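By way of example, we now present a protein record of this kind:
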Amino acid sequence: MPFTRTRRYTAIAPEYWPMTTLTDMPSPHTQAASRWLKLSILALFAGGFAAFFMLGGDQYLNLETIKENRAALLDYTENHFVFMVVLSMVVYTLSTALSIPGAVILSLVVGFLFGRWTGTAIILFSATLGATLVFLAARYLFADMVRRKLGPMMQKLVAGFHRDAFHYLLFLRLVPVFPFWLVNLAPAFTPIKTRTYFLATAIGIAPGSFVFANLGQSLGRIDNLDELLSRETLAALVLLGLFALVPVLYRRFRKPGQETGGSDG
């Protein structure tokens, strides 16, 4: 039987990921093109992040400025609804992809302008798309370098995602104790599939998206972002995250050789 080599990333440690052989080595021209493409993508992300602060974006994306202009924003949205929906999606997607601080304020503004249901849909779609873009960019730009240099730390991270990538990421998304930008980036250096990342992200951020869109309807009464979420809301999100870990814990602690019901047909 002829040997067929697969390039799928299914191993649990970096040393088992596909190795490049001499026959797989790209030509110097291809290497140069790839290098320029990576530099261009990196420059695009870095330039966008820097431009936000150089143009004073942080002065507009703060709670006081939004509250002072909420009447004008609401009036403009009522007169240009479709345009504002598209603009909100573009701004939210780019801010997520560029890891610009201010996602909470953007979520509140979207909830204030469009209501809890339309606002939730806008936040959910835009945040998921932006997170997926930065995930793909990080994987393309840095995955090889990270796998070579992080060693044991990378092995543990990869092993965890290999066992149950969907539920691991779902837990990280549901429990609001990890920085959003970090959860966007870290899975890029594991074998998780893009569709699994997208689905777990969309499901995982759905509860939080609804919470912030709903809170946004009371934008005028919010004075401190640090006290935005009640203990009850945080406890509910943590509980959802723990439920996401149930399949992972079951697989880890079940007896050796035990199979799930119905596996024999």
